[in-house]
Amino acid sequence: MPTSASQKLPWWSIAFYCVSIFFLPSASYARVTYDATLLRADNVHYPTALGEGGHVSGYTFTGFSKPPGSYPIVWDVAGKPHILPVQGSYEAAVVHGFDGSDSAPIGIIAPLGQAGGPAVVWGSLGATPLPIPEEFGIPREGNGTVIVGAAIVTAATSSGRTRQACVWQNGTFTLLSIPGSTTSALFSVNASGIYIGGTANSNDPSSLDSGLIGQNGSYTLLRFGDELGRIAPSDINDSNWLVGQFAPTGGIRGFVARHDLATGAQEFRDLGLFPGFAETYIGGINNSNTVVGAATPTLGADFTKALIWPNGSLEPQDLNAMVNLPGATVIRGMDINNAGQILAEARLDDGSGFAYFRLDPVVPEPAGIAVMGFAGVAVLRRRA
Is the distance from CB of 324 to CB of 282 less than 8 angstroms? Predict the structure, then answer.
């Protein structure tokens, strides 16, 4: 069983926060299995996010010979791709995710000759630009009221551009100005409008990358102790559990944590390593506290095994053992929604390439579930 980070830290770095519940399946729990739906496409394609209704956002890459270089795509529940409407000619377009509902894809449309473009929301009338005083916007996720992402802005000290975290809320646009940061972005927002992201200073290699957490246009740097290395959050659920990677000495590992914006109290859990593997990466978490991700066999290697931590477990399991995909190996759990559906990447066993699937849970009658409560412990101190 993996050792949690809180067990590794000295006594002075631990404070009690509150009693929190994480659910651990007992030996008698009937394991969920999954049916797989292939995300079909005629061209090279890249899914980006999984909606609550089972639709998948992304894009198809057509090449650089002539525009558009990519089409904005949403796959329906049957895995069929649909190109979203774009008025006029354009250089490229991408769907990054959804604004709360599967019927509100969000992304970017780059005008001809441009490497980026305005942030947009697609609806019944087509693509509607989001308000932004900057040239480019990159929306990542929304909850129906708040959309988070990044803007490409002109740097104050040079003629170049930088990526800066931003929030769209109630028709307004807010940049998060982070002192010392050369790049930042927000990745996920929950139903309460609490968002997470990351920031870094590329001009100072010795500085630690930091996570971000905030609400209503404000932010707090998210750190759990320098001994844990870089913190890179990737997703947050409606109970304010956030997941991502941290980089202690010896490789990258996944974590699940909480940070109370009102008090600053924290909890941190190391999600461990799969036996025989060197690193762990995290794709997402849902409201059942099920986490999905991937493992690499050696430091810095590509993903080779998809992992799942069901119902709050801190022990990773092989997702391949739960789905039957002849001729393919699931190598990464990219996202998970509250219905338990998983967006997954697979490598074809004949070496011909990769494929993407939505995995739908087939839930048997449970033989029994054990609930184990933990006293909350606060640690104070790709690859896309």
Answer: no
